[in-house]
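If your schedule permits, I should be very grateful for your opinion on a structural question. Please examine both parts with care and let me know of anything in them that strikes you as inconsistent. The record follows directly beneath this note:
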Amino acid sequence: MTSELNKINAADGPLGFAQHDHQKCMSEAIAAAEARCAADGLRFTPVRRKVLEILLQDHRALGAYTLLDRLREDGFGSQPPIAYRALDFLVANGLAHKIERLNSFIACVHPSRSHTPAFMICRLCDAVAETESSPSRGALGDVARATGFQIERTVVEAEGVCPTCRDKADA
């Protein structure tokens, strides 16, 4: 993504919980996806673009059937394979992530670089913030190296209460 989003992540915490220009965030994410697909020779079809746009509307994870309903509203059809194929493409190419805990999907905050994401999920409003983790350098990495295990993929998801919900609950 852009250095603007990286500054937001570094200065204010994960993007999903930070105050930011969301229209700019969305347009930059679409531009990054277009550039990534062009550079890698991938087809960024209208339905794939629309699914990414839907995922970018809020920093909340959405299930496949919610996405399918929104695609149907926009005239893209109503068959589940439409949504699942687009999601498979976006996840496989680092443009979206699956949130295992919620069995749903969210747009990637860092689509222009390889990274290991970690997700903070608000149990009250379902907001999801993505940040980077490095499990191979932490305690998990130490144990893996000690046992001869090679980590290929991790899923880090923390459930709690986001700043907005915490502030409302405190009031």
Summary: The first helix runs from residue 3 to 12.
